Amino acid sequence: MTRKKIIAGNWKMFTTVSAGVALATEINMGLQTRDLSNKKAIVIPPYTHIHAIINAVGANGNLGVGAQNCHQQKEGAYTGEISPVTLKEMGASYVIIGHSERRQYFNETEELLNAKIKAALAEGLTVIYCIGETLSQRESDTHFAVIEAQIKGGLEDISTEEMNNIILAYEPVWAIGTGKVASPAQAQEIHQFIRGLINAKYGNAVAKNICIQYGGSMKPENAAELLSQPDIDGGLIGGAALKAEQFLAIIDAA
Length: 254
Ligand code: 13P
Description:
254 residues, alpha/beta, TIM Barrel, 8-stranded parallel β-barrel, 8 strands, binds 1,3-dihydroxyacetonephosphate
């Protein structure tokens, strides 16, 4: 069986609202002439852009729209935070949870991420759960243990049924924004390991179905080889997602 390739652009804190609408519109136009029967494209702008982008590209068109984070509560006195209920109402279908930048700069722990995943799933959002080791973890040969702990902690008490709404993204921290991409063999080794962990916990049907994206300096030049690995089911793209032409070229490589 072939899994659909899912290509998502994580825009991070780049673009203004107007520039974001223009970028999403250009990507959406590009999708109209492409065969998407076996792939899915998603843009993940800052929260502030979501409503305007959905207005521009349509809620049920070719282009999925997501958010980069959400709070673990539906509402409350949490100044500056965003509720998964609001994301859903705005029309977002996806939410990234556990990006390494959130883990690193906002001290997000596995316990917190697990609560966020549950809150997002409860609102019907599809979660893109990010995992991946730092350079020092890889150099000290602890990367397999790190990833196992991230899977175990983040997915604690997530049911087999809920796994239908989870995408995993393996993003080695040393490859994010550095131009240093994991080799296809390095990435495949980890993706296969992750699928094995999912198989052990949820069984073969879930493991065979789950989308495991690669993220970290994926570009048009290296996408085809990465995406041709048997366990790499898509990409979570940072820098190259900010140019419609490059993002579309990665979609073409999928
Ligand atoms: P880059 O593609 O810029 O390395 O970013 C990857 C990433 O962090 C996507 O979430």
